[in-house]
Structures are given as C-alpha cells and as structure tokens.
Amino acid sequence: MARIAVMGAGSWGTAFALVLADAGNEVRMWGRRPELCEAIAAGHENTDYLPGIALPAAITASPDAAVALDGAEVVILAVPSQQLRANLGDWGAHVPADAVLVSLMKGVELGTHLRMSEVIAELTGAGPERIAVVSGPNLAREIALREPAASVVACADEQTAIRLQGLCHSPSFRPYTNTDVIGCELGGTTKNVIGLAVGVAVGLGFGDNAKASIITRGLAETTRLGVALGADPMTFAGLAGLGDLVATCSSPLSRNRSFGEKLGQGLTVEEAAAQMRQVAEGVKSCTSVKELAGLHGVDMPIVDGVDALVQGTITPAELVKAMISRQTQPEVR
C-alpha cells in the first residue's frame, strides 16, 4: 500500500485512480474545480467525466494541490499535455522531494518539442530513476468499468518500474514493465495523430481497408521516429505501440478518432472542439510531432497531412487523396 496523488480529475486520471485504489493504495486526487472534487470525495463519482461509475472509498479529492500532494510517495500526472508546464509551475513546489513522478500524458510539448518526461525532469530536477510513464490500450471508461486491460509501466530504472507495476496491478488491470521510456511516450503520442486520420476516413464513409492501411502505415511512421530518437523498435510492436494504436483507431470511445470523424463529416476544428467535452490531444500534438520529425529528418506523411488538415490548408478528402497518391515505394526500407 502506498499514498498516491493523482493530479488531474479527467476521465483517464480518475480511471487510473480507481485502478490504484483497487490495488490497495490510498489515493488523493487534485482537480481544478471544487465542485467536481466534492462530487468525487463525497459522492464517490466523477459526475462530469465518468458518470454512473462508483469510485472506491479509498479515493478522496481536493482542489488544493498542497493537500493532494502532502506525503505522496508517488505522484501521477494526468493533466492535458500542453498544460503540464503551467501546472507544475503552480504546484511543483509541493511535490515531495523523493516522490516518483508518473506521466499518464500523451503528447509532445509545442515549441520545445519535449516529451512529457523531459518536461517533468526540466521543471522538477528529478532524475530518470524517479520518472516513469504508463501507456497502453487504456480507454478510460472501459478501465473504470473494470473490463480486462493491460498496459506498460516504463522507467529507465527497472526497479522503479517493478515497484510501480506492483502498485497498479489490480484484479482487472495487468501492467508490464519496460525501460524504453522514449518508445512508450512516442507510441502514445503519435497514435493520437493517427487516430485522427482514421477518424477522418470513417467520417468520409470509408471502410476497414482504409482504416487498416492507415493504422499499419501509421505504425511504420511512429517506429521510424522512435528509432531516430533512440527507442527500441520492439516497443512499437507491444502494448504501448500497436496495442494503444489499435484501441485508439478502432473504438468510438476514442476522443481522437471521434474528433477525426467530425472533421471527415465536414466540421471545422472549432466546431468539432465545441461538441466534445474533453481534449483530443492529437489536434495539438500533430504540429509538435511533425516538427520533431523534421528536426530528425524522419518522413511522416500521415502526420504531415493531419497537421495540414488541422491548420485548414487541406480538406479531409484531400488528406486521403494525398496519402494514396504519394510516389510508390517498397514497404520495408
């Protein structure tokens, strides 16, 4: 049993808090809005993001970051990726000096092109043995309903990964360990962009052949970028790579696929965002991933196309046409 702080009261932060509580830990959540924290603490329900799902009594919540972080052995970071820097600036001083910091976030920071673990290291001074990520095919509502799921806990220090593995191994959630933080983070980030592309194809009325083609070529792009940055290519064949990609691209519960569908149906980015309560990370990450790939000379045509669509320089139909009409080449090169 450990005292764990979960910083972020969205759907994934809440679902992972439930996993941690089911595994026997004391969990204190932080959220921006007092009324939502009250619903979690007193009513044992996240009424905004996971309505109808009862949360364990071991979960409490507070809008005061200092209260949530007090005495925490492990700090789970579950805020939108582009807001991490600002949030750590607000409450980073309250993070216990020896706490392990775990990122649930899937993004690359705009402007700096830093992965979330790198932002955490820069702002907290924590060494790689104290920074971990959790990534995999983990749709929040299914996790909260305690449907069977697996994921990856990655840390450069294997013993830290093993410790965290024990803390989140519940009757319905099976974690595996990995030391490839780079690969796990890039797999989780890029799959959101590919999920948007698949959603666009669905919104345009295309079927399984189109979806499977985008998923497969998207995995190839992700692997190229990962290898260029020093990741283990085998990571992308696992839960944090292919597993997460398939879940995101296949499920109507996926925010990024759902956002892409709306774009494919003709909505603008602003109109699609207005219809969705939660952040579709790929809408922001497509630009940072594109720029990161450019810095390393990696060809990522699907990411490039999604970024152009989000920026409004091409239409959904032109995105699909661009993917199909590119110059032919060997599949493996």
What is the helical fraction, as a range of percent?
40-55%
Main pleated sheet:
8 strands, mixed
CATH fold-level label of the largest domain: Rossmann fold
Secondary-structure arrangement, i.e. CATH architecture of the largest domain = 3-Layer(aba) Sandwich
What is the strand tally? 8
**N-to-C SSE string, H for helix and E for strand:** EHEHEHEHEHEHEHEHHHHHHHH
Strand line-up of the largest beta sheet: 3-2-1-4-5-6-7-8
Instruction: Give the strand content.
Output: 5-15%
Q: Which stretches of 5+ consecutive residues score pLDDT under 50? A: none
Shape: globular
CATH class of the largest domain: Alpha Beta
- Say which CATH homologous superfamily of the largest domain is assigned: NAD(P)-binding Rossmann-like Domain
pLDDT average, as an integer?
A: 96
The number of distinct helices, counting runs of at least 4 residues, comes to 15
Q: Kindly give the count of domains.
A: 2
Terminal CA distance: 48 Å
Radius of gyration, in angstroms, nearest whole number: 19 Å
Structural class: alpha/beta
